[in-house]
Specification:
The protein is mostly helical. The protein has 2 domains: 102 residues, no CATH class; 46 residues. Helix 2 packs antiparallel against helix 3. The termini are far apart. The mean pLDDT is 77.
């Protein structure tokens, strides 16, 4: 292998080593998300929208901010995975403070951006706004359930009142057991 620039040397050397973050930046430049990144992004986005009362309750600017936060979180998950891979595959990187500082620098900028965006988005939950029609429908359903429960209780009482609940009452109801 002598003579090939960047790859020459003994087997197992790190001359041609490229950290896992280079592949991520190339994929991100093309706008491609792998299925794991896409699922994390969708999960975070749906959670953020639900916290603000649903997609219909937020402004377009808040929706864009939620999309940015979801993309940042999926990128952070991918970075963490790539950093773990680099540290596991490259034993020299574990012992090299400069390499660890560089990898941490990539992550630190992303975490700072994510924190600032989350602060802008807010952490309070907003309850969903119910329409008047929905409130009236829920009240009617509750009223109907109450009416059915009362009817069932009445029917149960009437059914148990006609039958003997205790043996002494049964004696008094049956004329054969009366003693004169």
């Amino acid at each position: 292998m002598a003579g090939i620039r960047g790859k020459s040397g003994p087997p197992g050397n790190q001359n041609a080593f490229r950290h896992g973050l280079a592949g991520i930046s190339q994929r991100r430049a093309g706008g491609v998300l792998n299925p794991a990144e896409q699922s994390v992004r969708e999960e975070i986005l749906s959670g953020l929208l639900a916290d603000k009362g649903g997609a219909a309750q937020i402004s377009t600017a808040m929706r864009v901010l939620a999309e940015i936060i979801a993309s940042d979180v999926s990128l952070l998950v991918t970075f963490n995975h790539a950093i773990d891979g680099v540290i596991q595959k490259n034993l020299k990187a574990r012992a090299n403070p400069k390499a660890l500082a560089q990898v941490n620098g990539y992550k630190r900028r992303l975490v700072g951006s994510l924190s600032a965006n989350l602060h802008r988005f807010g952490t309070e939950k907003v309850s969903k706004v119910k329409s008047l029609q929905k409130i009236i429908t829920e009240m009617a359903m509750e009223e109907e359930e109450t009416r059915i429960e009362a009817k069932n209780r009445r029917a149960t009482r009437e059914a148990t009142a006609g039958s003997a609940q205790c043996p002494i009452i049964a004696l008094f109801r049956n004329p054969r057991h009366w003693r004169y």
